[in-house]
């Protein structure tokens, strides 16, 4: 059966999972969730920092519920422990940072699936060992998988939500008294590209 480690994780329906988390409260929450789902006998909980407790070969590593920079740092620090494991990742922020990190470490993105929960959109990546070259636009806006593996309705909703977020950021930059002009230009370019992608889906 598949084995995995979830540094900030919940249960998956496989025979054996390890769950690592540096926060005791989060670990207790994960235990309660596993018990609620009837999976307590399939999980061994370990209190650890990132992948420090990973002492054997696993087939899948899942890291969710963190910012993108934290996830990238965990992956970099734990790279030697990953082996050839598949990765399942979900970052709340800094998505381009995670995509760039995967590319640099030698993992290629197979799936970018959109999840809508409690009024917010999330991206869930599945990556496997392999070389992948992403353009600057793919790093920022998503790989081809994002645009081909999700329904048009879900994709349009995600892009519209992302456009709202980035447009608000742009308005803030324009209102700033000492805004870096390069940052302003990059943000304006990002908003235009999002509008173009959304127009392509809507049409």
Structure description:
The protein has 203 residues and is of the alpha/beta class. The protein is built from eight helices and seven strands; from the N terminus they run ββαββααβαββαααα. The protein has helices at residues 24-36, 68-77, 79-82, 95-105, 136-141, 144-148, 152-175, 181-202; strands at 3-6, 16-20, 43-46, 60-66, 86-91, 107-117, 120-129. The chain has a seven-stranded mixed β-sheet, sandwiched between helices.
- How are the strands ordered across the major sheet? 3-2-1-4-5-7-6
Q: Whole-number average pLDDT? A: 86
- Give me the number of helical elements: 8
Tell me, what's the shape? globular
Radius of gyration: 18 Å
Biggest sheet features: 7 strands, mixed
User: By helix and strand content, what is the structural category?
Assistant: alpha/beta
Distance between the termini: 44 Å
User: How would you spell out the order of helices and strands?
Assistant: EEHEEHHEHEEHHHH
> Helix coverage percent of residues?
40-55%
Record field, number of beta strands: 7
Uncertain segments are 1-16
In percent, how much strand structure appears in the residues? 15-25%
Please specify the SSE layout and strand pairing.
Layout: E1 3-6, E2 16-20, H1 24-36, E3 43-46, E4 60-66, H2 68-77, H3 79-82, E5 86-91, H4 95-105, E6 107-117, E7 120-129, H5 136-141, H6 144-148, H7 152-175, H8 181-202
Parallel strand pairs: 1-2, 1-4, 2-3, 4-5
Antiparallel strand pairs: 5-7, 6-7
């Amino acid at each position: 059966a598949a084995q995995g480690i979830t540094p900030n994780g919940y249960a998956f329906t496989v025979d054996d999972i390890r769950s690592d988390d540096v926060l005791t409260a989060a670990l207790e929450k994960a235990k309660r969730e596993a018990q609620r789902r009837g999976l307590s006998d399939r999980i061994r909980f370990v209190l650890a920092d990132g992948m420090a407790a990973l002492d054997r070969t696993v087939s899948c590593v899942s890291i969710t519920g963190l910012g993108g920079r934290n996830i990238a740092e965990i992956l970099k620090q734990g790279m030697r422990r990953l082996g050839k494991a598949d990765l399942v990742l979900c970052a709340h922020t800094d998505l381009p940072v995670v995509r760039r990190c995967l590319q640099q470490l030698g993992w290629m993105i197979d799936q970018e699936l959109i999840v809508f929960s409690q009024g917010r959109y999330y991206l869930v990546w599945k990556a496997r060992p392999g070389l992948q070259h992403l353009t600057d636009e793919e790093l920022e806006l998503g790989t081809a998988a994002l645009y081909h593996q999700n329904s048009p309705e879900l994709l349009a909703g995600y892009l519209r939500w992302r456009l709202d977020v980035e447009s608000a950021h742009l308005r803030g930059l324009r209102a700033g008294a000492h805004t870096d002009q390069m940052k302003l230009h990059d943000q304006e370019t990002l908003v235009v590209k999002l509008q173009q992608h959304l127009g392509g889906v809507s049409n």
